[in-house]
Amino acid sequence: MVEVSGLAVVTVPMFVRENFGDDGVEKWLSKLEPDVREIYKSSISVNKWFDIQKVFIRPTELLCNLFYKGDFKAAWQFGRFSADYGLRGVLRVFVKMGSVNYFIRRASVVIPNYYTPMTMEVPTNEKGFAVLQIPHFPGIHRLVEYRIGGWMERALEITGKSKELSVEMTKSLADGDDCTEYQVRWS
Q1: pLDDT tens track for 113-153
Q2: Are 116 and 52 contained in the same domain?
Q3: Contact of 3 with 51, CB cutoff 8 Å
Q4: Is residue 14 situated within a structural domain?
Q5: If you count DSSP H runs as helices and E runs as strands, how many of each does the chain have, helices first?
Q6: Are 181 and 132 within 8 A, CB to CB?
Q7: Are residues 48 and 105 in the same domain?
């Protein structure tokens, strides 16, 4: 079974509340399966693991349908929000201390802490350009790929070390490619 960390799950209702208010949260919660609704209404442990389909993908799909006219690219914004949440306080200072290349190396270790089983590799990491790949993630969904891309984009912005930053997803396991690939460019 593929699982998602509570650290990723806890940010979903936070994102809804910040962007659509309490009414948006209630509208979203009312459409969830009862057992999933109870998870989201409770205090979510960031150390707990959840079934990715039931507790993460379907609720995120619902968010996209309710508030973004079904556009899965909204998950990119969820990822950005998650980076702001996860990289705050002392971690934000730590992120700002390293170079972009250092952070990209670390991202390949950090991101797999959100999803299991998965692997992430960095086959290219040079000045101004890097490639990150996910060669193994059983049943990955496009929503997860977008969320990871948005997380990386925002995390790299937080470093404050790059200008003209772009993160582009160039391959997709969900679409049948041999890996999910992100190309990162900066100056």
Answers
A1: 899 999 999 999 999 999 999 999 999 999 999 999 999 99
A2: no
A3: yes
A4: yes
A5: 9, 7
A6: yes
A7: no
